[in-house]
User: What shape does this take?
Amino acid sequence: MIMVYVASPYTLGDTGENVRAQLETGDKLMDMGYCPILPLLTHFQHIHKPRPYCDWMAIDVEKIRRCDVLLRLPGQSKGADDEVECATKLKIPVVYSITELTNTTKGWKK
Assistant: This one.
């Protein structure tokens, strides 16, 4: 399966709605045969055992390294922008819609 890291807003706006939006995208990606990596799932871990922002970003960088492509969802987010920059430095393709994702990954074998 093609692994897709989903980068999206978290702290700006309603965090619950931001998590929901990422989960909805992840569900669509699963229906399409992708393996979504949803970093906002750590929202629930953070509620139980809070950690510093730098810990979460270090974990996210490791997740990005293992992905085939990064999907950036709309909305203002320094963290998601940093994740795009990370993927770009690692030469991991960055796409901005599911349509662009399917066009980019067409013909990829995983």
About this structure: Residues 9 and 28 are 18 Å apart (CA to CA). The first strand starts at residue 3 and ends at 7. The mean pLDDT is 95.
